[in-house]
Every structure is written in C-alpha cells, then in structure tokens.
Structure to design on (162 residues):
C-alpha cells in the first residue's frame, strides 16, 4: 500500500517562499500535523527556521528556542491532536534526495524519545528560483553494519490539498 504525504497548498507555497528568501542558502523547519490510521502523514502547518537560524550553503541550524515555543503553542491550540512529525529543509540548486547528514538527522530524531515520533518524516525541497520539487521520506529503521550503515526508509507520495 502506498503511503501519502498530504500537505495544504498554502503550506507548500509557504515552504517555497521561505526557500526563496534564503536562496542560495539552505533553510527549513518543522512539520506539524498527524499520522492517519492508514499511516498517511497529514501536514497541517509548518514552523519556519526562526529569526536566529543560521543558513549555510550546505546546511542550516534552526532557532531551536523559537521552534520549540511555536511547537508548544500549536500543540496547545489543537488540544494535542496535532504535533511534531519531523523536519523539512531545502537543497538549493540540488535534488530532493536525502544526504548522509539527512539520514543521520532522521536517525537522531527517531532515537530521541522527547521528539515523540519513532518514524519521523523529512521533506526536502530541491531546486529553487520558483521551481521547487518536493519529496517526503519516512524513517523506518537503522542498522549499523560493516562496511555501511543501512537505513530503512519509505518514500511517500506527495498529495497537495486545499
């Protein structure tokens, strides 16, 4: 069964706009929403990088204090129905493929109990200059094996909704 990544068009447009503002440097933030009974991921909102974020050509450091405050407020407003799903970020002039750093980040999120999610999502916007592509990947597991680490990932089908 194909699992889907549902995202409102205005939220997707917001992500692209944030990507344009930082272009050619990376930006990103948090994905908020819920996981449906059929395991589809439903994004209802995002949190941007925050005013103190550090943007670089190949990476960015979010303003963690800002993001945590926004996440807490969203969780409260939705009476706990919507929560942190994972992260999103841009690959300016790049692809929507996970980098090794992205895979390690997903592993760290999954292994951090306070994240509240065992199978985090990472959405990546690649490209830029008003031509962004998006992919969404669910982390399922990780095993350390010689000579390579093995990541179990699921690519989600992108679905924009109104």
């Amino acid at each position: 069964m194909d699992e889907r990544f549902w995202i409102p068009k205005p939220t997707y447009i917001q992500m692209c706009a944030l990507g344009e503002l930082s272009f050619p440097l990376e930006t990103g933030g948090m994905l908020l929403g819920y996981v449906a009974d059929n395991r589809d991921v439903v994004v209802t909102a995002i949190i941007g990088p925050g005013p103190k974020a550090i943007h670089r050509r190949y990476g960015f450091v979010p303003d963690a204090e800002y993001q945590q405050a926004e996440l807490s407020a969203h969780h409260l407003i939705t009476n706990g129905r919507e929560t942190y799903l994972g992260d999103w970020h841009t690959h300016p002039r790049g692809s929507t493929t996970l980098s090794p750093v992205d895979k390690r980040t997903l592993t760290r999120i999954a292994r951090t109990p306070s994240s509240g999610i065992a199978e985090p999502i990472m959405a990546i916007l690649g490209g830029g200059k008003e031509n962004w592509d998006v992919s969404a990947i669910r982390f399922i597991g990780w095993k350390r094996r010689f000579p390579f680490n093995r990541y179990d990932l699921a690519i989600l089908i992108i679905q924009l909704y109104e």
Observations:
- The chain has a mean pLDDT of 92.
- The two ends are 24 Å apart (CA to CA).
- The chain has three helices and nine strands.
